[in-house]
Amino acid sequence: MLIALLGQATFLVLSGYCGCGQEALVIVFITAGMAISGLQYSGFVVNYLDIAPPFSGTIMGMGNTISCLAGIVSPMVTSALTPNGTQEEWQSVLWVTAGILGTGALVFALFASGEVQAWAKHKGGDAPEELPLKEAEMVLEKDTH
User: Fold this and answer.
1) What is the predicted pLDDT for the residue at 14?
2) Does the chain have fewer CB atoms within 10 Å around its N or its C terminus?
3) Cα gap 86→107, rounded to integer Å
4) Measured between alpha carbons, how far is 126 from 123 in angstroms, rounded to an integer?
5) Membrane-crossing residues (predicted)?
6) Phi/psi class of residue 124: alpha, beta or left (left: φ > 0; alpha: ψ in -120 to 50)?
7) Domains of the chain: which residue ranges?
8) Is the distance from CB of 15 to CB of 57 less than 8 angstroms?
């Protein structure tokens, strides 16, 4: 997760410092940043299932809903920061983006866990899913007779 977010931030900032005539280098930096961002999926996407298996779909839905706000807010922030479209204005946009990515990496590094959370653990008797297969079959047979 750290490599993905900080790598993406680095390549985005580097792309902002390319000059005229360096379009190919900008494309390389942006492509590298987006490619390395794919590494984050092995971090946070599977983490939903790690921390709360029975609620992973609900938590992922809530997380995706919240993250969609970035798609709504970012065009407004970008247009406010780039009224003239100069390179310096775009550098500020890329630095803000890098700051957000860096903050996300820091928060994930400090607070993320792969342990099932206490609130997500099954409370009560043994559920058939938690019993060995043979015992679960016996429980099901008892229930059907």
Assistant:
1) 96
2) C
3) 32
4) 9
5) 26-49, 61-81, 93-113
6) left
7) 2-120
8) no
